[in-house]
Design brief:
By secondary structure, this protein is mainly alpha-helical. 32% of the residues lie in helices and 6% in strands. Bound molecules: iron/sulfur cluster.
Length: 104
């Protein structure tokens, strides 16, 4: 491997991991989604899945919550974590919205 290519690769890896770290830091500081948020209203997001309007959101089934949704970006046990449906704002692990997709 030519040294300029190696240098490029090493630099790229460094930049990528720095970006990953700063994204992590941004996540921790990301604001929490409120139920008044227009996206939350459009998606029927509730901070407590038990309060989902079941008449309006027939697809909701007991046991579904952000913590077991494939979009939830937290680890098991994280009370809040970012969700891409809300531009990376944090949602409650006990919450739910109509974009719910069961984690495989
Ligand atoms: Fe929660 Fe999933 Fe909806 Fe995001 S997409 S708010 S993690 S149910």
């Amino acid at each position: 491997m030519k040294s300029s290519r190696r240098t490029f690769l090493i630099t790229s890896i460094g930049v990528a991991s720095t970006l990953a770290l700063s994204r992590q830091a941004a996540f921790a500081d990301a604001p929490k989604v409120t139920e008044a948020d227009p996206t939350a209203q459009a998606l029927g997001y509730k901070e407590d899945a038990a309060k989902v309007d079941k008449a309006k959101w027939a697809k909701y089934a007991a046991g579904q919550d952000c913590g077991n949704c494939s979009f939830y970006q937290g680890k098991a046990g994280d009370a809040w974590a970012p969700c891409p449906m809300f531009g990376g704002k944090q949602v409650s692990s006990k919450g739910w919205c109509s974009a719910y997709n069961k984690k495989a």
